[in-house]
Amino acid sequence: MTDRTELADFLCRCRARLVPADVGLQPGARRRTPGLRREEVAQLAGLSMDYYARLEQGRGPQPSPQLLVSLARALRLGEDERDHLFHLAGHEPPRTRRTLTHLRPSLLLILDRLHDTPAQVVSRLGDVLAQNRMAIALLGDRTQLPPRERNVVWTWFTDPASRARFPEAEHEQLARAQVANLRAIRAADPQDAEAAELVAELLAASQEFAELWSRHDVAVRRSGQKTVLHPVVGPVELDCEVLTSTQDGQLLLVYTARPGSESAGRLELLRVIGSQQMTGVTS
User: Fold this and answer.
1) For residues 240 and 120, is the Cβ–Cβ distance under 8 A?
2) What are phi and psi of 256, to 5 degrees?
3) CATH 3.40.50 correct for 105-282
4) What is the dihedral of CA 135, 138, 139, 142, to 10 degrees?
5) Which one of 38, 45, 129, 262 has the minimum C-beta count within 10 Å?
6) What is the pLDDT of residues 6-43, one digit of tens each?
């Protein structure tokens, strides 16, 4: 059962202790009270302002587990605080490996500080867990999709539209890299049920994946290059670096363009476009 009064108080207090810089926002003008505004938390969590306001007012429907995960990230909750949020909302906190997607506040802080560079956090199996605004502007928002559709390996081999952002000439190399990395993960931990399930589903769904899997190529993802075909700014040539791996096997991927290049100019244009779109929330 949801403890609406305690949930409302907890949300208010967590919001009040944050400042815009904690979540990668500009301070803006006419900020008369401490902490984030309700609309800022709602935007960070992917909720409507009205829905979030009702939660803080102790009314509205019981939040779903997926919504609570988004709120925990938006409010930069630690793991114990995340579990407390679930309990107040009347849900058991995530316990299984499949749902171990909580991000440490320190990792989210790094993600927020990379305001002019696309960056995202992915699980060891390729589930997109969090993205900064530049990554969303460049690659699209995957964090609000159903769980399996957040997985870049799954969508690459089952959804042709997922390849539309990349030149056809790079498709084979990107596909082989995805499979080789998954093969390395599978071999490193044969008892990993989540990895086994993903491989089994891909083998059943994609002939291309099955053929690549049979080659037994192995290569851990560390760095690489790719070209993103953005519908507004055009092709952007990027280096992808894995800057950190957390204790939970989550990876921080950062995409950079060579300084002074045409691609760097296009990234800057994308940053400006994204900032203009966010003006109504952050000013």
Assistant:
1) no
2) -130, 155
3) no
4) 50
5) 262
6) 999 999 999 999 888 788 777 766 667 678 999 999 98
The pLDDT value given to residue 54: 93
Strand order of the sheet with strand 119-122?
A: 128-131, 119-122, 251-256, 234-245, 223-230
pLDDT classification of 281: cutoffs 50, 70, 90: very low
Query: Which amino acid would we find at residue 67?
Result: L
- The tokens of 144 are what? 């609000």
Structure tokens at 49: 């302002």
Residues of 230-242 as b/e, b for ≥16 C-beta within 10 angstroms? beebeebebeeee
CA–CA separation, 151 and 149 (whole Å):
5
For 52, phi then psi, to 5°, come to: -65, -40
Domain range list for the chain? 4-95, 105-282
Question: Whole-prediction pTM value?
Answer: 0.69
For residue 246, the model assigns a pLDDT of: 54
Whether 17 and 35 have beta carbons less than 8 Å apart is answered as yes
The closest of 102, 93, 101, 137 to 118, measured between CA atoms, is 137
Please name the fold of domain 4-95.
434 Repressor (Amino-terminal Domain) (1.10.260)
Question: Residue 154 and residue 114: Cα distance in Å, rounded?
Answer: 27
Instruction: List residues bridging with 244 in a β-sheet.
Output: 252
